């Protein structure tokens, strides 16, 4: 190999560029309280959600004492 080849920097070499793919599975909408559209739903105002999980079309939220919201 030539000395010129060794002196090239990593950025000068042609490397494949990895890019994140974006998948839009959901229509994003902010949920609102039924009584007051300027606030989040009451259930989210009362507790500190510390745990969440999802699966099979459901979302489960719980607080630090593992009370399911």
TrEMBL record:
**Ranges for the PEP5/VPS11 N-terminal domain?**
20-64
Superkingdom of the organism of origin: Eukaryota
Q: What is this protein identified as?
A: PEP5/VPS11 N-terminal domain-containing protein
């Amino acid at each position: 190999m030539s000395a010129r080849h060794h002196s090239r920097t990593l950025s000068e070499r042609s490397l494949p560029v990895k890019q994140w793919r974006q998948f839009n599975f959901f229509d994003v909408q902010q949920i609102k309280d039924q009584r007051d559209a300027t606030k989040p739903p009451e259930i989210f105002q009362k507790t500190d959600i510390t745990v969440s999980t999802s699966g099979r079309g459901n979302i489960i939220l719980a607080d630090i004492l593992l009370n399911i919201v």
